[in-house]
Each structure stands twice: as C-alpha cells, then as structure tokens.
C-alpha cells in the first residue's frame, strides 16, 4: 500500500538519492552534490510559496518517487487563469515500471481539479510519454547561432545598464505587466526574480524610471582550447518593442569578444531581423536551403477541466461568430474530464450550456489535441487534415477554425 504526501525536511535525504539516480546528468550523485540538492530544495520549500514537493511512499516509508508541484497565474489568451505545473518527476530505480509515475501524475491532475486549476503544464523528459497522458504539444522554440554583426546595427545604448538585486521590485513589476498582455506568460514572484539576479549577468532597459526590458545571458567557452573565444548564450530576452533596438545594439557590440550569439526564441520570424541568419553549419537542405536554426518541443499543456477552462475564458472574445459547439472530449487518463462540453458562442463570447443541449456542430477530439488547439499551437484545420479531430459538418470548419485562431502561440519563459 502506497501513499502520496508532501515532503518534509526529514524526507530530503531520500529525495536526494532518488533524484540523483533518476537524473545522473544533473551533478547530484556525489555526497556534495546531494547536499547541495537538499539545501536548494529546502530553500525553495521555505521561500517559494508556489512550490510544494510531493513523494510517493511505499513499504516501510521508503520513497519510491517524487515531484515538485507549482501554482501559477498564466495569461491564457487574454484572461488570467490558475495553472498548475509539475516538475522534477523522479522515480526510484528499483521501482521503475511499477506505475509510480502514473500514480503521481493522476494525483497531480486530481489536485489540479480540486484547486480549480483547469490547465496543467510541464517540461517533458519524453514528449510521447506525456502525450499518452493527455498533454498536448506547446510552442516550438527556435535556436539561432549567429554572428553578432548579423544583428541590426545601432549605436544608442543610453537606456541600457547592468542590473542588481536592488532592481528586483522594478524588474518584477515589469515582468508581471508584460505577462498580463502576453498569451502563455506566467506571473513571476520575488523568489524567481532573486534567482534570476544571481551570479549570471543581467542587463535591463530603463526609461523614465521604469524597466521596460531585460536580457539574462551567460558566456559559454567556444570550441578548442582558446580561452579568449566565447559564445554568448541569451538565456532570456523580454522587451517592449521600443527597447529591442538598444538591446540588439548592446549584444551586437560584443562582436570582438564572442564568436556566436545563441538565441532561443519563440518567434518564427526572428530570421527577418538578421543580416545573416545562417547558424554556421553550412548545411544545405534540398534543393538549396541554408540551415538557419534548429527547433525543439518543450512545454506541454493539458486541459484538466474543459468546462471550467471555458468558464475562466468567459470574458475572452473568440471572434465574432454565433453558434453552438459540442466538444466531445476523449480523456481516458483523467476520466472526470472525459465526455461532451457544449459551448454557445455569442459574438465570440463563450457560455456553457448543459451537456445534453442541441449543438450546431460537433468536434470530436482527444484532450492532448484540444489542449494544443485552445492554446493556439495548432489549428483545427491541421488537426482535421491529419485525422486527429473530426467535425460533424465540414461546411462549418472555417467558422470553428476561426473561433480558435490566436494572434500568436503561447510564450512561456517560466522554468520549473
């Protein structure tokens, strides 16, 4: 018989052992590494009110698996929605293939519904594994490795300066102002800002006493043994449009010290800002296409309560259409979310109806695909084309597709 409960300080030694064996590449297998892990986790437990560590305990109180659960406020489309995150899911090596992860994930999803969080997020160690549990793919990230001189030329850096811990409150204020108007962004807290303003450098754009952009970056030693050649890795770049030219000017001015600037961006049109977007591999794609960037899948989204999510989005405009939609949601992992949800769109505003109400059109869809659709990662047309969703009346496809169209896919910079 097993139980899942919140970890206490006395459980941290077991947690360090489980984590070290589950993630041998994280540098916590040594005694010193496990000590640092325990200390960091204890600091999080005491100082970050959004995070709670949980463990699945088996016979004799032995820890079989652990995870960190997070509570966030995310801007979903245009509305603030409670969102739950799960991270550092680790299973003891002796208890693999015993459904430890499955049981922890079911506990997590049940907790989401109990805490009125209709959306869950995670960074997957394997996307296919979590897709089988109903998590849908999120926005792809693009990694560019470009020469500094490829950035737009500019000399003005008069509003750019290095940041310090004293900038924490102003930086937090900017981050949360920006998050309110950016689909997919989570609100940050002071603990997260303090962590960002640690040993790695940070640069901010400040105008009229107000921070309006920042870049967190680090240096990475380049190939070979030359200690004077580095790449500059842009860990996070968030700016109001007016701040971008000066941020680019700052980064471009490092050309005498760095070989490549490495950007990880959600923007599929970032190449347009670059004089030369090639990444230095000189790789050709058929017939003559130069390799510019690589892409990766990361954050995944999962609707945990379809009806509750539409309730949270009641003040969002899904366009200007008037029709009644039945979503027949297939959710075999979270059975409470399995079944039909009927939504009336009146001038684009959603209103929930009884699940037995008559509808103009029905869309049958799995919860993973529904999650990606609502977040604006994929279109209904794409899902229909690949047989991942079905619609009862094809003539209404353009109307339903337009309802779920977003200006941009979600952008989440929160790491957990």
Written account of the structure:
By secondary structure, the chain is of the alpha+beta class. It has three domains: 3-117, Aminopeptidase, CATH 3.40.630; 142-296, Gcn5-related N-acetyltransferase (GNAT) (Aminopeptidase, 3-Layer(aba) Sandwich); 304-403, 2-Layer Sandwich (Nonspecific Lipid-transfer Protein, Chain A), CATH 3.30.1050.10. It is 25% helix and 31% strand. The chain has helices spanning 12-22, 31-47, 100-114, 127-131, 168-180, 190-196, 244-252, 306-312, 367-374, 380-385, 397-403; strands at residues 3-6, 51-57, 63-76, 79-91, 119-122, 136-137, 141-146, 160-162, 202-207, 210-221, 230-239, 258-265, 284-285, 289-290, 293-296, 300-303, 323-330, 339-346, 349-353, 361-366, 389-391. A hairpin with a 5-residue loop joins strand 2 (51-57) and strand 3 (63-76). Helix 1 packs across helix 2 (31-47). The protein is globular. The model has no long low-confidence stretch (mean pLDDT 95).
Task: Give structural attributes.
7-stranded mixed β-sheet, 416 residues, Nonspecific Lipid-transfer Protein, Chain A
